[in-house]
Amino acid sequence: MDYKQKVITALANALDGQLSAEEIALKLEKPKTSDLGDMAFPTFALAKLLHRAPQQIAQDLAEKIDSSDFERVVVAGPYLNFFFDKGQYSAATLENVLNAGASYGQNNDGNGGKVPIDMSSPNIAKPMSMGHLRSTVIGNSIAEILTKNGYAPIKDNHLGDWGTQFGKLITAYKLWGNEADVKADPINKLVEYYVRFHKEDVDKPELDDEAREWFRKLENGDPEAHRLWKWFREASLEEFNDVYKKLGVTFDTYNGEAFYNDKLEEVVQILKDKHLLVESQGAQVVDLSKYNLNPALILKSDGASLYITRDIATALYRDREYAPAKNLYVVGSEQTYYFQQLKAVLLEMGLKSAPNLQHVPFGLITVDGKKLSTRSGRIILLAKVLEESVELAEKEINEKNPDLANKSAVAQQVGVGAIVFGDLKNERTNNIDFVLADQLKFEGETGPYVQYAHARAESILRKAKATTITADANQVTDPEAWDTIKALADFPTMVKMACDELEPSVIAKYAIRLSKTFNKYYAHSKILADDAGLPARLALVKSVSIVVKESLRLLGVKAPDEM
Predict the structure, then answer these.
(1) Which of 389, 446, 384 is closest to 413 using CA atoms?
(2) What mean pLDDT is predicted for residues 44-66?
(3) 556 contacts: CB under 8 Å, gap ≥ 6
(4) CA neighbor of 341 nearest in space, from 332, 327, 360, 354
(5) Dihedral over Cα of 335, 337, 341, 343: its sign
(6) What pLDDT sits at residue 373?
(7) Out of 114, 264, 417, 550, which could bridge 557 as a Cys pair, Cβ 3.0 to 4.6 Å?
(8) 467, exposed or middle or buried, with CB in 10 Å at 0-12, 13-18, 19+?
(9) What is the pLDDT of residue 451?
(10) What is the mean pLDDT of residues 240-262?
C-alpha cells in the first residue's frame, strides 16, 4: 500500500493539474515527528502560481481533498499534513516484510547488468593496514547493495603486484635481505626493507636508479627478478587472505596489475593507431586539454609503463569480458584527478564502457589525526585491530552475559562487525579518525547497538515460541509502534537510494534509525502481553528482526541471535 502515491494522487486531483505528479513528489516532506503527520506538503512554492497566501492555499486544498484514504488531513499554517491509516498501513507493511523475508526490498532495477568493482587492492609485500579497510568494506557493501538492486557485481581485487615499488623492494632485499628471515616473517621483513630503502635513498639517490633497473628487468622477464616477485606475491596473498577471512570478504577475481603486463603493447598500439600518443620530453603522453586536464603520461622516456597504462589495459579487458553496465573503482579521494584522466583517455579511445566508468571515492582513515603510511613506517595493522576488537567484544560479553553458550563466535561477529559498521556508518567521502573503544560501545550509533537490537528481537520471539506468527490481521495501532512501522516501510526506498548513490552509509544510518525506534517501542510496550494484539506485535518484532539482519548483511556484518 503506497501511501506516498495516495498523497500525490490526492494533491494532483485537488490542484486540478496545476502541478505534475513528479513536481508534487519532489515537494513532499517528512515531518520531524509523527505527531505532526506522516507526510507534509508545503504550499510556499504555489503562492506565485495561484496568487494567494500559502496558508490560504493549504486551507483550500484541504477542503478539496478526499480524506477517506487517510486517518486525517490537517492544515498547519502553510503546510498540509497527512496522517496515514495506522491499521491499514501497519497490516500492509508487515505483510510485505513477512511474505518476502530476507528478499524484502529486493528489486530488479539493474536487470542483471555486470558491474566490475575495483576494490581493496593492497600492494604486495606490504601488510594490510587500517588504510586498506575502507576500500575493502565499502567495495564489499556496494557489491551486496548492487545485487539487492538486480545487478551482477564482480568483485575484483586489483592487487598492486607490479610497478617501480618492486624494483625498490628487490633492490632492498638484495642489499640487506636474508632468505631465512623473510621465510620466517615474510611481510614484516619485506616492509622493514622497504622502509629502510626510503630512508637511505634520501642520501643515496643512486638507489633509485638501481630500483628502476630491477623493475625494467622484471618487465623484461628476468628470471631472478621474476622469482623474487612471485615469492613476495605468494607470501603476501597468504597473509591478505587471513584478513579477508576475518572480515568475511570474498572476491571473484584477483587479476592484479601483473595480469595486464602482456596486454600493454596492444594499449600502446591502439593509442598510436588513433593518433592519440604524442612525444613530450622523450615520454609518450595523451593530450587531454579538451577536458581541461593535464596530459596523461603513458610511457616514461625509458619505455617503462605506468599505473595508467596498466589501468587502460584493465578497462579494455573488462570492457570485452563483461560489457559492464557500470565500471566502479573504489579508491581514495586523493586519486580523483587521476580517474578523471583515465576516463578521458578511455573516452578518446572510444571504449564502449568508458562513459560508465565511475570513481567511487572515500576519505582518509587517520589515527590521532595522522595519515597512515607504509613508506614512513607509520602502520597500524588491520589484522591486529580486528584481533583487539574481538578481544574487547569478548570482554564486554563476559560482563553482560557470562552464560552465553557461544561466546567466542559471537565475540568474533561483534568485534569484526564493530569495525566494519564503524567505517560504513560514515558517508564514504568523509575522513575518519579511528578510535577502537568508540566502535565497541553497545549504546549509541554503533554496530553492536544494531546487532543487539536484532538479538533482542530474536529473544522476544524465543520467549513467545508458542504463538504462531502469520501475515494475517497484523494491524498494530499502538502509537509507540508507529515510527517502527514507518521505518520498516522505508527499507525498499533506502535500498534504492544506497544503490543510486553508491553509499553504504544510507543503509547503516537506516539500521541505526530502525534499531532506535524498535528499542523505544520495546521500552514502552508490553509486547508479550497475552491479549488479542499479541500476534500482530510479534509480527512487528519478527519484521524488525528480518530487516535489521538484512541491513547488516548488506553492510557485510553478521547479526547474532544472542549477545
Answers:
(1) 389
(2) 92
(3) 137, 140, 141, 144, 247, 248, 249, 420, 424
(4) 354
(5) positive
(6) 61
(7) 417
(8) middle
(9) 98
(10) 94
Q: Which three cell numbers stand for residue 522?
A: 520495546
Q: Enter the DSSP assignment of 217.
A: H
Q: How far is CA 64 from CA 56, 80, 215, 443, 533, in A?
A: 13, 12, 77, 47, 36
Sheet containing 39-42: which strands, arranged edge to edge? 39-42, 79-83, 72-76
Mean pLDDT, the chain, rounded, equals: 92
- What pLDDT, in 10s, does the model give residues 529-540? 988 889 999 999
Dump the DSSP string for 400-458: H-TT-TTHHHHHHHHHHHHHHHHHHTS-TTS-EE--HHHHT-SSSSSHHHHHHHHHHHH
| H-type alpha helices, 201-335 | 206-219, 223-247, 264-273, 307-322
Residues 6+ apart with CB under 8 A from 185: none
Contacts of 49 (CB under 8 A, 6+ apart): 18
The residues, ordered by sequence, that sit 6+ positions from 75 with a Cβ below 8 Å of its Cβ are 55, 58, 59, 62, 81
- Calculate what percentage of the chain has a pLDDT beyond 90: 74
Tell me how far apart the 2 most distant CA atoms of the chain are, in Å: 87
Strand 327-330 relative to strand 357-360, pairing? parallel
pLDDT band of residue 508 (cuts 50, 70, 90) is: very high
Give the three cell numbers for residue 204. Answer: 643515496
Question: Could you identify the residue written with the cell 519484521?
Answer: 543
Query: Which grid coordinates belong to 125?
Result: 609485500
pTM: 0.90
Tell me, what's the pLDDT at 174? Answer: 94
CB of 542 closer than 8 Å to CB of 468: no
Strand partners, 277: 286
User: Does position 428 have pLDDT exceeding 70, yes or no?
Assistant: yes
Contacts of 419 (CB under 8 A, 6+ apart): 133, 385, 386, 389, 439, 447
Model pLDDT for residues 63-85, shown as the tens digit of each residue: 999 888 899 999 999 999 999 99
Question: Rounded to a whole number, what is the distance in angstroms from the first to the last CA of the chain?
Answer: 35
> What local confidence, expressed as pLDDT, does residue 466 receive?
67
- The answer to whether 309 and 264 are in contact (CB under 8 A) is yes
Q: What DSSP line would sit under 164-208, residue for residue?
A: HHHHHHHHHHHHH--HHHHHHSHHHHHHHHHHHHHHHTTT-THHH
C-beta neighbour count of 221 within 10 angstroms: 9
Task: List the beta bridge partners of residue 232.
Answer: none
Burial class (CB in 10 A: 0-12, 13-18, 19+), 30: middle
pLDDT reported for residue 386: 95
CA separation for the pair 226, 74 (Å, rounded): 75
Residue whose C-alpha cell reads 616514461 in the numeric block: 300
Helix (H, G, I), strand (E, B) or coil at 151: coil
Q: Is 455:560 a contact under the CB 8 Å cutoff?
A: yes
* Lookup: cell for 544: 524488525
Rounded distance, CA 539 to CA 77, Å? 38
Cell numbers given for 258: 601483473
